[in-house]
Structure formats: C-alpha cells, structure tokens
Protein: N-acetyl-gamma-glutamyl-phosphate reductase
Amino acid sequence: MAVRAAVAGASGYAGGELLRLLLAHPEVEIGALTGNSNAGQTLGALQPHLLPLAGRVLQETTPEVLAGHDVVFLALPHGQSAAVAEQLGPDVLVIDMGADFRLADAAAWEGFYGSPHAGTWPYGLPELPGARAALEGSKRVAVPGCYPTAVSLALFPAYAAGLAEPEAVIVAASGTSGAGKAPKPHLLGSEVMGSMSPYGVGGGHRHTPEITQNLSAAAGGPVSVSFTPTLAPMPRGILATCSAKATDGVTAESLRAAYEKAFADEPFVHLLPEDQWPATASVYGSNAVQVQVAHDTAAGRIIVISAIDNLTKGTAGGAVQSMNIALGLDETTGLTTIGVAP
Amino acid sequence: MAVRAAVAGASGYAGGELLRLLLAHPEVEIGALTGNSNAGQTLGALQPHLLPLAGRVLQETTPEVLAGHDVVFLALPHGQSAAVAEQLGPDVLVIDMGADFRLADAAAWEGFYGSPHAGTWPYGLPELPGARAALEGSKRVAVPGCYPTAVSLALFPAYAAGLAEPEAVIVAASGTSGAGKAPKPHLLGSEVMGSMSPYGVGGGHRHTPEITQNLSAAAGGPVSVSFTPTLAPMPRGILATCSAKATDGVTAESLRAAYEKAFADEPFVHLLPEDQWPATASVYGSNAVQVQVAHDTAAGRIIVISAIDNLTKGTAGGAVQSMNIALGLDETTGLTTIGVAP
Amino acid sequence: MAVRAAVAGASGYAGGELLRLLLAHPEVEIGALTGNSNAGQTLGALQPHLLPLAGRVLQETTPEVLAGHDVVFLALPHGQSAAVAEQLGPDVLVIDMGADFRLADAAAWEGFYGSPHAGTWPYGLPELPGARAALEGSKRVAVPGCYPTAVSLALFPAYAAGLAEPEAVIVAASGTSGAGKAPKPHLLGSEVMGSMSPYGVGGGHRHTPEITQNLSAAAGGPVSVSFTPTLAPMPRGILATCSAKATDGVTAESLRAAYEKAFADEPFVHLLPEDQWPATASVYGSNAVQVQVAHDTAAGRIIVISAIDNLTKGTAGGAVQSMNIALGLDETTGLTTIGVAP
Amino acid sequence: MAVRAAVAGASGYAGGELLRLLLAHPEVEIGALTGNSNAGQTLGALQPHLLPLAGRVLQETTPEVLAGHDVVFLALPHGQSAAVAEQLGPDVLVIDMGADFRLADAAAWEGFYGSPHAGTWPYGLPELPGARAALEGSKRVAVPGCYPTAVSLALFPAYAAGLAEPEAVIVAASGTSGAGKAPKPHLLGSEVMGSMSPYGVGGGHRHTPEITQNLSAAAGGPVSVSFTPTLAPMPRGILATCSAKATDGVTAESLRAAYEKAFADEPFVHLLPEDQWPATASVYGSNAVQVQVAHDTAAGRIIVISAIDNLTKGTAGGAVQSMNIALGLDETTGLTTIGVAP
Structure:
C-alpha cells in the first residue's frame, strides 16, 4: 500500500528536489502539489526536469488540498510552517523542510528569525546521537538546514569522543541553489559565475545557532561556533571545512578511529580512504556525505572536511531519509549514494 | 536471474556513467571492470562518485577477464573494439560504445578514422525508423555518437515526412565530458570556464558521416550536412540547433504534427509544449531528449532544437536502452526521464 | 582638454562596462552618472569592481543633470533614448547604446519593438563599408547590438565579395550579461550554470532585422537571415557560427583572401592563422574580434566564426570606438585588443 | 627611456598575465620571451588573448637570450630560478615569481620543497611593514605566493596592532589558474566545474610557512597557522577567510580603526564600507585587494576576508608593482584597481 505524499511548495528548489526523489521512491505515490504564487501553473513550466509530472497543475496551499495524505512535506518560507502544520492533524506525518521547528532555544530562534518560536520537533539528522530513535514513529520531523547537516556530521564525532576543544571554526562554501529560486540581483548567473563571496559573516547566519545546538549536544557542554558561509560558483553542493584545537593526547590514529567508529554503520556517511579528500562533484544528486579528517600537529588542530549535496542530503534527501525512519521503512529506500559526475 | 555485465574501459567518463546506470538497473549484476592504464587501481580513486563500487579493483582488458558475462560493454578508444569483440564469442551480447561499428560506408570510415573498417552492427538508436527491430535479439550493438544522437533525433522526423530540403545545417554545443578524461591543455578548467569555442569546423568532425548516414536513411536519399560542434563551459549536455529549408507547403502545424506523431510512443523523447524550449540542465543525468520545433516563415526554414545529456542518452543511457531491447527486457528498465536540476 | 562624458544608465552592465573603459581613456573625464531606480546610491554598491568611482552617487536621468557634457552615453532600456536625446541639443555627441536608432526600416522597428520608430542614426560599427565615414564628425551614434556586431563582422566580407548565397544561417551563443542585470528566474546562477538553452527561435529575436539590414547592405540586395541565439553558462562573450551556401567558384583560397583584404587595416578585427579558431575567452574584456573562415566543400558552404566580448566590442567598446571617430581622436584610444585570460 | 624586460616562462599562466600587464605598462618594452618545452612556437598559439604579441616566437631559456635586459622576470617551476638568476649579473633587476627566495628559514624551505635553500630576497609585498623600503633600489625581488598575498594582507594589521591571538585559522578558495597550465586529470574542466574540493589539508601546503613567516613578523613573535586551501570552480580569484581569537579589549571599532590605518595610504588595498563584503569577481584582472573585517563577539574572534585576483595582485601584478618600486617608478604605473565584471 503506497504512502501518499503531498508537497507544499513544489515550485522551489527544495520542492523540486524532493519530487525528484519521491518519483524514484518505490513506496510513495505523489499526491497534491501546491505553490501559492504559482498555483494554476503546470509543473512542466516550473520544473522542466521532472518530465513525468510535467502535466501536473499546482494548487493553492490550503488544508483542504493537503488533506487525505499520509505525509505532507512543507517546503515553505521560514516562519510559515507552523500555521499549516496545525491544520493537518496529529496522525499525518508532517515533515518541515523549513527552519521553524529546528531550534530548542526559543531565544535563539527569536534572535535570528525575529518571530515567535513555534516549538521543537524531532530533528531529521538520524546520524546524530539519539536522533534516529526520536524519529522512529514520530509524526513530526524538522529537517535540518543544509549547512548544519554538513557541519554537524563533520564535527559531532570529534566532540562526542572528546577530541576537540569547544571552539569550532567553520568556513563552508555552498552552491547557489541554497539561496533559493527567488530572483535577486546578486544571484544572477552573471554575478555568481567566476565569483566567490562571503555572507552572514561574524555569526549572523541563521544556521549558526543550529550548528551550536548540535555540537553542544555532542560535546555535552557549550561549544562556541565561528561560522562563515560563502557562495560558490556552482549550482549545488556544500564543502564544509571545520576545525578545532585538538585536546591533549589526540593523535592522527585516535582521530581516525573515532570517525571510523562513528560512521561504521551509517549507510550514507562515507569516511574516505586516507589519501582522498571530499569533492562536492562526487555527491552531486546523491544522499551521500563524504568526510575526511586530518590532524595538523604544527597548528595543534583537527580539521574535518565534509561534502554534501545541499539539495539532497542537505534538504530533500534528509527529508526522505527521515520519512523512511518515521514510517518504519528501510532508511535507504529511494535514496542513493551514487553521485552524478562528472 | 541477473544479467551479468562486464565493462571494458571503466575508468573513463563513458564507463563511469555506464556504471552509474547499471548500479541502478534491477536486472544487472556488475561483473568484471577493466581499464588498461589504470589496472590495479580501485574504482574509488578513479570514480569517487560511485561509492558502492569504491573497493572494486580494475583488471586488464583480456578475453579471460571478460569471459563468463552475459553482456560486455566496450568503452574503449576508437579502433580498439573490433579486436576485443572478436574474442568474445557469438553468444555474448557485445555493446560497443566506440565508433568502430557505426558506419556502413567503409570509405567514410577510413576517411575519417584512418584505419580499416571493422564492419557494421545494429545501431543503438531505437527511435530511428527500423532501428528498434534490428536491435531485438541482436548480439551486437553499435551505440551512436553523442552528437549523432542529438541531431538525428532532432531531424529524422522532418526528413521522414518530407518537410525539409536535403541540406541540413547544424550547430551543436557540447559539455566538456564529451572530449573525454585524458588531460589536454585546452580542456583544463582554466581554459574552458567562461569560454565557447568551435572545433572540427568545415566538415572535419568524425560524427559528420554518422549524421549524414542517419538523415539520408530517413530522407530516402542523400542529405548533405554542415555540422559545427562547439565546446561549452559545462561538464555535460548537448544542445543541437538544427535547420533546413522547408519544402513547399510546410506549415507550423504540419511540422508540429509530424513531430508529435514521430515521438508519440517514444518513452524518452519529449516534444515540449509550444512555448517552451529545451535546456541541457533539464536532462542532466537523465535519458530524456527534449525537442522543440519552429517554422521561420521569413527565412523559409524549419528549426529543430534538441537537448540531451551527452553521457546518458548520448552514450551510456543509449547503451543500456539498447541492451534492454536486445535482451528482451522492458526498454526503460533502469533508465529515467528525470533530470537532476538545478 | 578633456572630453567630458556623462553616462545615463550607469548601474547596469552596459553602463558599468562603459565606465570601466572610460576610466582607462586618457582623453575622457567622467561627469554625471545617472540611474533612475538606483538614483541616490553609490556606485561602489552597484559596481564594486570600479573602485576609483566607488564614492560617486547616481543621480536622476534629467536634462539638467546631463547638461554641460561633451558626450552623453545612453545605456537605457530600449525605447527610452529618443525622449532623452531630444533634450540634449544638437551640439552634444549623443551615443545611444540602446536599439532606438539602429534600424532604417520603420516597419521592422515597429514589428519587433512595438513602438513608433524614432529615426536612424549613423551606425557605430565602423568596420562595415561606409560606416566609418558616416561616423566622422557625427553628433549622433547608434551603437549596434551585440549579436549584430559579431554576426555582421563575420559575414559582411563574404557578401561584399559575392562569395555567399543570400540565405545566411546563424547560431550564436551569448554569455548571460547580454540579458542584463534585471533579476529574472531563468537568469539565476542556479539555472544557467551547466545549461545551454535557445531563445527567440524562428526569427523572433530583435537583433534579426538589424543583422538582415547589415548583410543586405553588404550584399547589395536582400539577404534572408535565420538567426538562433542561445544562452551559454558564462558571464560574457559571443561565439557566432555563421554559414551560407558558397557561390560558384568559391575556393578556400578566395574565401580567405577576401577576409584578409577586408580586415587588413582594421585595428580590432583579427583573422586568425589558418589552424586556429576563435574562443570567447581570448577576447574577454577586450575590444578585439577574432574571426576564422572555412570552406566546407562537401556541404558547399562557407562557415565563418567570430568571437567577441558582448559587453566590450559588442556594446561599450563599440561605443567608445565610435566616440573616438566622431570626435576625431585616434580610433583605438582607450581600447585594447588584449583579453583577460585564462 | 624604456625599461627593457625579458620574461622566462612566457607560456604559462603567470607569464601570460605578466605580459598582459607589461603590454599596458607605459615604461616597459617587452624583450625576449622564453619557454623551454614551447620554444619555437608563436605566442599566438599559446596565449591567444595577447594579440599584439601573436607573432612573437618563444626562445630557449639561456643566459644569452636573457642578456641585455634591464629586468628579467622568472616565471619558472619552483627550484629553477636560482640557477638562472646566478647567470644574470648583479646589475640586472631579477624578479622571481617562483618560490625559491621567499623563505628566510632554510629548514622550512627544505622541509616543504625538498631541495637546498637558495637564499632570501627582498619580499615583493610592499604593503607589509618594512617591505616597501627593502624593495627600493633592490636588484632582486621574491614575489610572494598568491595565497600568502591574500592572507598576509588580511591578517597583518590585526597582528601588528595586537588585536589577534597568535593562532590563525585560514580557509581560502582559489580559482584553477593557481594550479597552473600543465594538464592533470583533476584540473580538467569536466572535473572542476560544479565542484569544490580541498587539498594540502593539515598544514601540507607549501604556502603555509610563507604565511607563518609573514604573520609572525607582523606579530613580533611566533604565530601558528592552520591553512586549508580549496579549489573553486572559477578560472581566477582567491577568497581568503581568516580568523583568530580576539585579544582582550578588542571591539568592532578598534578592529576597523586598525585596518583603516593600515591601508589608508595603500593604492591597491581597499577596506570596503561596513556593509559590503569582498567578492573575487570585483577584482578580476585588477591589482586591487578588497578587505572586510568583522568582530564575532559570540565566538570571541575577529574575521578578516580578502579577495584578490591570484594571477594579478597574487602573482604578475605584485611583480610589476615590485618592479616599479625597485626601479623608482610610481608604484601604480601600468596597474589598475578596476576589475573586469561581471
């Protein structure tokens, strides 16, 4: 019996990627597709790469349209999910791809998003300690942000194993799809091709408190986070370069052992062989995470680098993975670790 | 019972794309992988996006290694397939992704490739008139070149329906993976990013006789072909802009009707709605072909534009599609019309 | 004594490129800069690459602001130049970088632009027969479109020498800056990187009548033009692939001789050595035009390929070159044939 | 009286960029051009963007060929400069664009480069404390590496002013031209477009000791450096994200004041207005450095981000700037702070 899924926000990049994955998911039947400003248009005009859905027409995002599904994915602007979720009833699995329910700290939410905190849902990054169990059977899931996915998976094993001092420094490069489909001058192809540029520098990016939350939980105490995101001239992908001072006694061997152990049973996280480094091209369109670690003895730091596809593992793939767990399906159903390269 | 497949030439772009598709093919079990200069290396080092095969080691391309498979794919340099194919026996399905067996005209072969003509095998572009039937049950398949795939699918309906004068003018842009993985200065990222450039101008490209062969067959008489390939700053994709003088009496309606009819039952060729034009991004990683037609009444020409992924429908996807037909499987098994975008 | 120049429309790509060139022009002093929707902003925020002008503030485009200059450049949306030009007086050199005064055929203007025809000014492509003389001392210049620049320079020698039949087929690829700086969804970096796509197919592009006008003038009779523009994943550059049936008796030698003769004294047009083909990267940021010709004897066609920078020779460089001629300065002042590569 | 300049290594990216700048330098006459493996070829074939030099033929790199010039630029592989320099005589200005004479610490040189240390020359980064004076009248100049240029200019003011703890963490993204023109598989366009990847992680990059040397000099004591370079999908540009713990009492105001003071008289370093961040596109082809600073009070760190063109200010522009100083010319002669954008 198929799982019937609706997607609210089907015209954007997150919604499009989700539909790409759901079309390949053997247990899912795609139901209602909504998109407010684009309601009435065909998906063929908005997502021309999704040929099997080309004739589908977007509807308004209303409780009536979203009713009657087993799963409802919300790919809405930040702050709009709570109102929609309330109307869906407790038995529907609601998977929020926005930020509304990611943070436990109401003050952090309000400081970074400027609106009242809506609550906290089980967090859709099953690789984190305890996260998988919280997702099993849950009817509500908060899908992590793309940067927090890349960064948290890179650093949590070091913090969980006590190998890193609680001051993390992170510089991450993201493809432009992370900035969404709303046209803005600085996102024009003419502007981004050939250019690297930072934004949200100095702690201002909204993903900072989410990263802090995850690393602090892994460390069992507060971790301070210096996070600098940069925009890279590519459509997809995140490369996160993460480092912290090594605690006393850390060696290259103990560092690697901690990561081997942390990811030994993970289907999507791949610690690369010692001489190989992650590249975003290798995870293009896949749900895989590539990770590599190094111990810089001269600087006394551990460096961990991860690569993900921001739209797949960083958004829609993480959402499908969480859905699988919540519904009791095999976690890897409909997902792949095979990238599209070159 | 699984189809056991070997891939000779697994380290290049065609071989890598083929493996990406075979990994997702429910009827195929991946057997021997070979690559002469890279024999002994792991696939993880050469094709880091194919995580499930990361530990596989490349072997030498020998008859012994390739023995015992149901299907052998040859992704070898032009001119090397015949010698390998001879040793494989008549009961093995051999699918040549090189040029060796594409041309019926021995003189054209020798003029463009400079070596003796090896023969002619059933042509792996099932959408062409008569091609599908020739592939059914065949033990030998010559996979078309990437440009001939894009161009022939764009123009054969016009020639088959008598709508175009027999002088075709084609300008096509290809992503850099079409030029292969052997490092050459003009293919460096520093050179190709930000640059469009032509090559093989004036009839010199090796795909010209193959296009001529296909269009002449569709027209039932000789078609002259002016073909100019250009290198575009993107990894994948072909956009083929094809035109010819319209024959007397052609109208926009008759033109469109001919294309609707030609592609009505084709699972992979998609004639776009009238106001929409192909884009290579929409077929990234998919086996789909997007086509659109126009009748320029002022210039008296029909213009047909097609977009494919040169590595998928243009090479490895075409190979898998042909394998499915040759083996009696559903033609679409393991293939998708869903692109990875943006 | 410096030439004092104002730029109306300084916030867009054409205006920015013009300022880049004027800053390097030894005879020009940059005066008023205007931009309606951006009036009041600093140029540093809008054109951060023009550091020497970072503190300049954009003004409204009014006759008062534009008064008191020797030259006024109009980089305005199509259809807005005539009203501004009228108010500038007959003694000011007005250089229109828009389309308003390019076409001699009022019906063609009205058909393609949908507004009344404003008139015809001397055409700022001095390499065309007779054009240079018309520019000398002129107080009004219509700068050509970027595609017409690339295409007309590629084909006029063949038409002027009677080497080509009067049916030209042109496919050109342009960088995204040709589409301007106004944010539109299909121009987002996420959409254009990795993608080639056509637009204005079938004769619909506004540059078609301008190309037709130029080639017909060179041929001394009507030339029909099939023109297909495509959007390429790069910020700048046009590669124009142009062909036509060769007239009787054309040889590779006669073709090359005609082009050598046509460009022998041209400072900016460079016929490449016989084994070398144009690449847009080679003319990045320069006013040079690279051209190469071929005679395809099998198809009976001549193929001419040109590469320009759409913003430099295709817009702002052409404007400065025309200004130099109109003012009696050396034509090459402030311009270069040196590209920025790789 | 013109300065006569020879360039050894004119076929590579550094040599090509140097020639681009020298062609625009009013005091320089370009003399001998050499390139060993390419000797005998025309520059037009190797550097097709340098049209004015298209007919020049490369010669062998011999003392005879290099004799008779006022300045000799060495754009040779690391380790080859010393032998050539020895033969040039003490009165010739020799500007080494390789690494041979950058490091004062012979052990660091031998550890990172694996060959005997050749010596230490005045360092061609005039913005560093004391550097300009050492260059004046010097006959030998060691041009800095591209990363050290970007990083040292970003961080030296903080260390010189005592605002940063002596543990710097740097993540930098570079365009592919930084990796040179020798064709290698991982530098193919197919591989780099759409991909971000790190290399030399954990302190292994050869620019690490050079950065350490510069920052330690500014701090007046040892600074440890964690440096991670990444390869970005663009031809040119470096974006360096640099941070360190703030010392006690640092404020956003004191931080900004230190940078304003450090760069107040620098013609090429531009501290951006407070709300604007560097982008590599803005310095494309220019000798400018864009810098911005932030104080992250939550993380207790200062973050400084700089953008340069790795080939211009990072290599050839730095070389010309140093030449100007050494020869007593105006430091900015032949150089620009105007980028080519978009």
The first helix of chain B runs from residue 13 to 23. DSSP finds eleven helices and twelve strands in chain B. Chain B touches chain A through 40 residues (CB under 8 Å).
